[in-house]
Amino acid sequence: MKKKMLIVSVSILLIVVVWLVFFRSKLGPDSQFVNPALNVINSLNAGNYQNATRDFTPALKARMTNEWLSPKWSQAIAMYGPLKECVVTRVTRGESESGPNSIYGVYITYKFERGPLYGIVKFDRQKQISQFSIWGSPQR
């Protein structure tokens, strides 16, 4: 009887550990960076450029104005077709992985109708978006 209880206890513990590892991004701090990163592209896709830049640092907002973003996004849609899906492929933590002055980097694959584009959204120590980049090749 004791052996059976031990097996059940170990099984439950194993299930809990697997569940925590599998759903870690939903429970951990990553979501506080993933959600704003996805907001940028979803807002661009909706034509809401003001909302897309709401979490940008002042320096990035000055560079990526609505007037600058609008034609760039229109060009991407013209070349690649409508955006179908965004998939977070990797989240980096700390300056050693994310770069100087960055505490998180969110790598995203943007799946358009005619092919994918790849990007990164980096966050600074104040949890503001300090870099938003999109490129055509997955190696970066």
Question: What do you see in this structure?
Answer:
The chain has a 4-stranded antiparallel beta sheet. The model is unreliable at 16-27 (pLDDT under 50). The chain has helices at residues 2-22, 24-27, 31-45, 49-52, 58-63, 66-80, 95-98, and strands at 83-93, 104-112, 115-123, 129-135. The chain is globular. It has one domain: Nuclear Transport Factor 2, Chain: A. It contains 7 helices and 4 strands; from the N terminus they run ααααααβαβββ. With 140 residues, it is of the alpha+beta class.
CATH architecture: Roll
CATH classification, class level: Alpha Beta
Secondary-structure-derived class: alpha+beta
In round numbers, the mean pLDDT is: 80
Short description:
The protein has 140 residues and is α+β, with helices and mostly antiparallel strands.
Which terms would index this structure?
single chain; 140 residues; alpha+beta; Nuclear Transport Factor 2, Chain: A; four-stranded antiparallel β-sheet
Summarize the SSE layout with pairings.
Elements (H helix, E strand, L loop, with lengths): L1 H21 L1 H4 L3 H15 L3 H4 L5 H6 L2 H15 L2 E11 L1 H4 L5 E9 L2 E9 L5 E7 L5
Antiparallel strand pairs: 1-2, 2-3, 3-4
